[in-house]
């Protein structure tokens, strides 16, 4: 783990590190003890000489990748010597022309010469196992690659720069000091006095517990900001659900007709409203139906409601609320919901008011139910919808207020473990238990925080985390 150098003495890996597309440049990355010697067998300088073995580190050479006498491509090759590289091993990066054929040709040639194809995330895993980065920074690499909005990007950059790991290391150092003091006092009571120590320990643990709690409190908002809001559009047929999806995406993504029941399956789209990301699911209109296919769509719609972070419940405000609407309202009551009263342009025929909606939601958990009058025909209400979402999830402030947000479920779970262990320490103090009890639970907190960094973690979890990475990273 970090701080302990692990070697891969006979294992040199390679992979394409850029997208497989018709791009101007493609990069093939090679890492391991034989990176230089293997690449030297396929590289010729502009003078048609094998010169990579004399390649100065941190420089770039122009030349050719050749299969025997055949030139595959002209390239630029950079060399980073261990331990001053991404993986802390010898690393070669071959900058070729982009395109699937040329990059695959170079990759296959390297495999023929003795490289092994890298597993997903193996370059970053080697950086972690060789001690260059901790696990929070390794996870941040993938988060940067997959960032969908500015918050996710900035949060991942901060994590890669060590903001989270610095906070965790500081907490661990405080805990370790107290563990060492207790052990020393128990082993050498003549030189270490524990008189009054429980009160001193409480004064140390209390602020640590609050610090961890403040991190945990950012987790739900952090995950929403990073991953987006799972949003489900529900309503009866012809209420305007598909029109709402089209208005949000700015595209004719869903079929809009006057025929009830047109949407029979779920349609999923990612929508950005400023820096808010919505993963929007347009569902079949919820109603009682004898049509087998439509019924499957209705059942899917109900199941999607259970998974949703946000419900956009759209009604045709020119029709009165009926039993089917009441059934939908019951499904929405336990979820964050925004009600959209559509067809507001038909002002002479409005039959549903805000008061009527609030009356039907009166026994729900939606204390401040947003209700927006919309006209999908004229595009009215989308700006108000964005403001309502911001208020529901971010207290009206889209700009993040915290320096560190917890955006990883694994981190949140481990912080909860550490928090609970520190609570047990305080419980032992309040019950006047012996110092041995303090050590047990301090150790539990120390190890839980260590798992966040990857310093107390099993091989299976390491494999699971890095298996989610893209190839070549």
Number of helix segments?
16
Strand order of the main beta sheet, please? 3-4-5-6-2-1-7
What is the radius of gyration? 29 Å
The proportion of strand residues reads: 15-25%
Distance between the ends: 19 Å
* H/E element sequence: EEHEEEEHEHHHHHHEHEEHEHEHEHHHH
- The CATH homologous superfamily of the largest domain is named P-loop containing nucleotide triphosphate hydrolases
3D architecture notes:
The chain contains 16 helices and 13 strands. With 473 residues, the chain is an alpha/beta fold. It folds into three domains: 13-134, Gyrase A, domain 2; 146-218 and 406-453, Four Helix Bundle (Hemerythrin (Met), subunit A), CATH 1.20.120; 226-394, Rossmann fold (3-Layer(aba) Sandwich), CATH 3.40.50. Strands 3-4-5-6-2-1-7 form a seven-stranded mixed β-sheet. A six-stranded mixed β-sheet has the order 9-10-8-11-12-13, with helices on both faces. The two termini are 19 Å apart. The relative contact order is 0.12.
Short structural summary:
The protein is 45% helix and 17% strand. With 473 residues, it is α/β, with parallel strands linked by helices. The chain has 3 domains: 13-134, 2-Layer Sandwich (Gyrase A, domain 2), CATH 3.30.1360.120; 146-218 and 406-453, Four Helix Bundle (Hemerythrin (Met), subunit A) (Up-down Bundle); 226-394, Rossmann fold, CATH 3.40.50.300.
């Amino acid at each position: 783990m970090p701080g302990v150098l692990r070697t891969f003495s006979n294992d040199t890996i390679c992979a394409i590190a850029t997208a497989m597309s018709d791009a101007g440049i493609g990069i093939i990355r090679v890492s391991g003890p034989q990176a230089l010697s293997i690449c030297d067998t396929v590289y010729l300088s502009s003078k048609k000489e094998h010169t990579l073995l004399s390649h100065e580190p941190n420089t770039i050479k122009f030349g050719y990748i050749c299969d025997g006498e055949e030139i595959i491509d002209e390239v630029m090759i950079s060399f980073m010597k261990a331990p001053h590289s991404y993986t802390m091993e010898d690393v070669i990066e071959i900058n070729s022309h982009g395109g699937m054929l040329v990059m695959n040709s170079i990759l296959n040639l390297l495999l023929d010469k003795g490289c092994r194809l890298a597993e997903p995330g193996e370059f970053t895993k080697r950086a972690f196992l060789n001690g260059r980065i901790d696990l929070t920074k390794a996870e941040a690499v993938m988060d940067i690659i997959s960032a969908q909005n500015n918050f996710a990007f900035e949060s991942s950059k901060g994590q890669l720069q060590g903001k989270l790991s610095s906070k965790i290391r500081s907490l661990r150092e405080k805990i370790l000091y107290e563990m060492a003091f207790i052990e020393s006092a128990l082993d050498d009571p003549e030189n270490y006095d524990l008189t009054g120590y429980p009160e001193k320990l409480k004064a140390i643990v209390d602020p640590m517990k609050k610090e961890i709690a403040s991190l945990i409190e950012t987790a739900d908002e952090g995950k929403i900001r990073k991953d987006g809001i799972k949003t489900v559009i529900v309503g009866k047929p012809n209420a305007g659900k598909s029109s709402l999806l089209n208005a949000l995406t700015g595209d004719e993504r869903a079929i809009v007709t006057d025929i009830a029941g047109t949407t029979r399956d779920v349609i999923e789209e990612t929508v950005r409203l400023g820096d808010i990301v919505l993963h929007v699911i347009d569902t079949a209109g919820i109603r009682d139906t004898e049509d087998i296919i439509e019924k499957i769509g209705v059942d899917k719609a109900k199941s999607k409601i259970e998974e949703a972070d946000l419900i956009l419940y759209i009604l045709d405000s020119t029709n009165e609320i009926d039993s089917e609407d009441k059934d939908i309202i019951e499904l929405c009551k336990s979820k964050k919901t925004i009600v959209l009263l559509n067809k507001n342009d038909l002002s002479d025929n409005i039959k549903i008011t805000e008061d009527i909606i609030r009356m039907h939601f009166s026994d729900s958990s939606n204390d401040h139910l947003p209700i927006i009058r919309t006209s999908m025909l004229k595009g009215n209400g989308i700006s108000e919808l964005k403001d309502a979402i911001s208020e529901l999830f971010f207290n009206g402030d889209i700009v993040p207020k915290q320096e560190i947000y917890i955006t990883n479920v694994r981190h949140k779970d481990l912080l909860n473990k550490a928090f609970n262990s520190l609570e047990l320490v305080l419980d032992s103090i309040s019950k006047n238990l012996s110092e041995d009890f303090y050590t047990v639970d301090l150790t539990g907190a120390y190890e839980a925080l260590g798992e966040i960094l990857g310093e107390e973690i099993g091989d299976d979890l390491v494999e699971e985390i890095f298996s989610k990475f893209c190839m070549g990273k």
